[in-house]
Design a protein that fits this description.
With 269 residues, the chain is an alpha/beta fold. It has helices spanning 7-18, 39-52, 65-74, 88-92, 120-127, 154-163, 178-186, 216-220, 242-252, 257-262, and strands spanning 28-34, 56-62, 79-82, 95-109, 117-118, 145-149, 173-175, 191-196, 205-206, 208-209, 227-235. The longest helix has 14 residues, at 39-52.
């Protein structure tokens, strides 16, 4: 679901709001790495932050949540990005979570598919191969093509944990990014997959789950149950550079709420 307010518009708001300010006095580079699902949120935040701190460059690399967490733990990036909660072993290694947003994990189908309201149990049965034909759900007599993310993806981890299908999914194809899942569901009338709600556009249909449509409001009030945090990750005992701390502080501040919302996610406070 794309918001009416685009990321570009959010950046313009930032520039307008900050017009007349003297500009940041700090300089430097902040390297972030991790979740591909956080691309839109990171784009909005970095553009807005740039208006406030023009001499600080924030780099974003989308290599997946697991890679981003590993990167911050081994010191190859300043801030890791995860679209799932941290695992116990990652916390024991020193990973510290800073929740900057909430995101629904949308169950997406092709717009030509008449099946657009599923229970959590039906979703679990589809992804584990117990339900294999759309006719079992009131749709066409066609085999279901189950698409998902690659192992290590934060979206996959969150989806499988919430739905209760960890390690049991029977994927026809696995993809390396949210965009790839959406694109392939859009091109196959019989496909189903999951993707960050913030990335869902008109090319696919975000199905209702237990009668509740995914939206900013239903994620925030908890009625849409397939949701996860967007997390910036630091390492315990490691002091961030002044530039990196400034960016983290900005991302966690109330000022960031409008930009996070513009990117299709939900400010958590």
């Amino acid at each position: 679901m794309k918001k009416a307010l685009s990321i570009a518009a959010a950046a313009a708001l930032a520039l307008t709001a900050l017009a007349g300010c003297s500009g940041g006095q700090r300089g430097g580079t902040v390297n972030t790495d991790g979740s591909t699902s956080m691309a839109d949120v990171m784009g909005a935040l970095t553009e807005a932050f740039k208006a406030e701190e023009p001499d600080i460059t924030v780099n974003y690399s989308g290599t997946g949540s697991g890679s981003g967490i590993s990167g911050v733990l081994d010191g190859t990036c300043d801030i890791g990005l995860s679209s799932r909660e941290l695992k116990a072993e990652e916390v024991s290694e020193g990973a510290v979570a800073h929740v900057v947003a909430l995101d629904g994990v949308a169950v997406v189908v092709n717009p030509k598919n008449p099946v657009s309201d599923l229970t959590t149990e039906q979703i679990a049965d589809i992804f584990t191969g117990k339900i294999t034909n759309w006719s079992e759900l009131g749709g066409a007599d066609s085999a279901i093509a189950v698409y998902g993310r690659e192992d290590g993806s934060g979206t996959r981890t969150a989806f499988e944990e919430i739905v209760g299908v960890e390690g049991e999914c029977a994927y026809l194809n696995e993809y390396g990014s949210t965009g790839d899942v959406i694109g392939n569901v859009a091109s196959n009338e019989n496909a189903i997959g999951y993707a960050s709600l913030s990335a869902v556009d008109g090319s696919v249909t975000a199905a209702k789950v237990n009668g509740v449509a995914p939206s900013e409001a239903t994620v925030k009030d908890g009625s849409y149950t397939i949701q996860r945090p967007f997390v910036m990750v630091t390492k315990e005992g490691v002091t961030l550079s002044e530039s990196a701390q400034a960016f983290l502080d900005f991302a966690m501040s109330p000022e960031a709420a409008e930009y996070i919302s513009a990117a299709g996610a939900v400010y958590p406070n």
